[in-house]
Design brief:
With 435 residues, the protein is an all-beta fold. The chain has one helix spanning 129-132; strands spanning 8-10, 22-23, 40-41, 51-53, 57-59, 64-69, 78-82, 89-90, 95-97, 103-112, 117-127, 146-147, 158-163, 169-173, 177-181, 189-193, 198-199, 205-209, 212-216, 224-226, 232-238, 244-249, 256-261, 269-271, 279-282, 288-291, 297-300, 308-309, 320-327, 331-337, 343-348, 359-360, 366-371, 377-381, 386-389, 397-399, 407-412, 418-422, 427-430.
Length: 435
């Protein structure tokens, strides 16, 4: 499809004995991954052709080269590149660059001498294309949701999925098997067993298994038991390899206790737990949320030493807290299932201190929820249902998954890169936000 460029030419002073007749032509995008446009000038001493040469489909985090085309040489010319991601400008003629995050960007180039300036622009798409290349997708050219090969047997059900960048990931099957991928989920290798294993953003893992706490400090490798403060182990969460919380109970009918470690479970300190709190979720080493799902919620800003009542009203629809998700420290979502199993969604924009009234979740029975940033997120459910939001959960749109199997888990890295998994070996990925 032709690329309609932005274009401008800054006039230069009239030179003696020169007829400055300029003719401007716009050409279609170059064949393949290149693109740009051409400018022709008839005065003979200015470069008669300028092209912007760069891939139009770029892999997230991978270097590529952008250069001006059609110039006989670069002598006497000044170059300024702007890659549209807020990183500033680059003055070299040819530039090797890397986009850190997926998205749509405009590359702009200015070429000038003492007399005039030419400007060119090129629209590019950045995403995890290598994950979906050559896979069956619901859209064309790797767009939409694409089918990957699930780890293990085709009948396995995925109920845990974590990706730490666009390449390294871990999947957990319902039978407790753990699998690891180094290529964004295109292939998997068996990594062991973790019946209730979960993972922090830095790749460190924890598991409650056989009445003991197990830890892995390096992407599901080298699981080891660690010391605990005693009592029956109920739940654990780590936000990195060193900082975590453990919930225990000393006896049947006893109140739950909360302990905190800051040294990778080598030592534990007793924290406090609000009475009636059924769920706790920590965003980072200091900020956390607790809730009973029915009538109350609390926040902590000191890692669980003290708690403050949050402004929340679950109304008559309160019930079991299914999922708490934060994108950054302020924007959060809490999904609650009422007695009938219907999912409701509450939102917070102040770190959990206050929450909106319950709103219907995008589907009746949503199984999981994930956000790539403060605005872009996905929810999954029965019959291959996927919903997407681009406004922080204010509205949701159904997306075509290409599967009729129930989806149980979803995880996201950014506004365009996400994975979803579920029943009978179903594993899907997108590099285009599901569109």
């Amino acid at each position: 499809m032709p690329i309609e460029p932005g274009r401008s030419r800054t006039p230069r002073p009239r030179r003696p004995r020169r007829l400055l007749l300029a003719v401007l032509f716009t050409v279609a995008a170059l064949v393949g991954c290149g693109g740009g446009f051409t400018l022709y000038f008839g005065d003979g001493d200015w470069p008669d052709r300028l092209e912007v040469l760069a891939p139009t489909r770029i892999e997230t985090g991978r270097e590529f080269t952008a250069r001006p085309g059609g110039l006989d040489g670069y002598g006497g010319l000044f170059f300024e590149w702007d890659f549209g991601d807020g990183s500033g400008t680059v003055a070299n003629a040819e530039v090797t660059y890397r986009y850190a995050r997926a998205g749509g960007y405009t590359i702009r180039l200015e070429v000038s001498d003492r007399w005039e300036t030419l400007r060119a622009s090129l629209e590019v798409e950045v995403g995890a294309w290598s994950i979906v290349d050559g896979r069956p997708c619901t859209g064309t050219n790797g767009r939409g949701w694409c089918q990957l090969d699930a780890p293990g047997a085709s009948a396995a059900t995925l109920d845990g999925l974590w990706f730490f960048d666009t390449r390294e990931g871990v999947a957990r099957a319902r039978d407790g098997a753990l699998w690891r991928s180094r290529d964004g989920g295109r292939s998997w290798s068996r990594a062991g067993t973790g019946t209730r294993a979960a993972f922090a953003p830095d790749g460190s893992g924890w598991d409650l298994r056989g009445g003991q706490l197990w830890q892995s400090r390096a992407l599901d490798r080298d699981w080891q038991t660690v010391g605990t403060p005693g009592g029956s182990l109920l739940a654990a969460q780590f936000v990195d390899r060193d900082a975590g919380w453990l919930r225990t109970r000393d006896c049947e009918g006893c109140a739950d206790r909360l302990y905190r470690t800051q040294d990778g479970a080598r030592s534990w300190q007793a924290a406090t737990l609000p009475a009636g709190a059924a769920t706790t979720h920590f965003v980072d080493r200091l900020q956390g949320l607790a809730s009973d799902g029915h009538s109350a919620a609390w926040t902590t800003q000191d890692g669980g030493w003290s708690w403050t009542v949050a402004a929340v009203n679950f109304g008559p629809r309160g019930g079991r807290v299914q999922r708490i998700v934060f994108a950054g420290s302020q924007q959060g979502w809490m999904m609650v299932a009422d007695a009938a199993g219907t999912s409701w969604l509450l939102r917070s924009s102040d770190g959990g201190r206050s929450w909106t009234a319950p709103e219907p979740a995008p589907g009746t029975r949503v199984a999981d929820l994930a956000f790539g940033d403060e605005r872009h997120g996905w929810a999954v459910g029965e019959d291959g249902a996927i919903w997407a939001t681009r406004d922080g959960g204010l509205s949701w749109q159904a997306q075509t998954s290409g599967s009729a199997q129930a989806l149980r888990v979803v995880t996201a890295r950014d506004a365009r890169t996400a994975w979803a998994g579920g029943e009978h070996g179903t594993l899907l990925a997108t590099a285009t936000g599901g569109r």
